From TrEMBL:
It is a multi-pass membrane protein. Pfam families: ASC. The chain crosses the membrane at residues 44-61. The keyword Disulfide bond applies. It comes from the Eukaryota. Keywords: Disulfide bond, Ion channel, Ion transport, Membrane, Sodium, Sodium channel, Sodium transport, Transmembrane, Transmembrane helix, Transport. GO terms for cellular component: glutamatergic synapse; Golgi apparatus; postsynaptic density membrane; presynapse. Belongs to the amiloride-sensitive sodium channel (TC 1.A.6) family. This is Acid sensing ion channel subunit 1.
Amino acid sequence: MDLKVDEEEVENGQPVSIEAFASSSTLHGLSHIFSYERLSVKRIFWTLCFLGSFAVLVFVCNERIQYYFLYPHVTKLDEVATTHMTFPAITFCNLNEFRFSRVTKNDLYHAGELLALLNSRYEIPDTQMADEKQLEILQEKANFRNFKPKPFNMREFSDRAGHDIQEMLLSCLFRGEPCGPADFKVVSAWLLVSLKMASCLLLRWRSYASSFEKTSQDGHFTEENRPQGKQELCLLKEL
């Protein structure tokens, strides 16, 4: 912003009027706001435009500053070729991380809110959206009248109510040779996600890796899974 002040007024020691300052300023619109004219529609219009632009500037600056203090980062992945690797790597991702048929009354009492089946008052939310048969079973399990809770262990609950590959795997072929559940092992168990996602607070990710070794680039893997009920359907990602 370039300010052009009359040298004579400065030398005389007289303060520069706001109108003179605005007329000599290169800040766009300032000369229209502080002018020698009387109050008019033009001055009001320029004042509103100036204040609006200034408000947008403050808003954008504030938003960028807040974003900066979130410390955003970008993750870059580099692919590296290898001649020796464990193959294939299969990830089973189930949106229903626990089998509803394996959830007991004690599980529901301790982890009902965590599983998004109950609210903080041990009540069933959104009953109108639930399946009638499933709702009936859930209502029976959620009846805690005269119920004495027992100790609860999340790991035991996960092993008992989680999806087991021995029950899901129907057939498996790797490079023309049969494979089975014994050729897979759990390589990751738990993933804790954002607390903002209440219905997905705790996701069970079972990641299996075959014990076979990849000896060439033409390795082929086929597999058939058994869906575990309408409410316990597994999603398969093949590599």
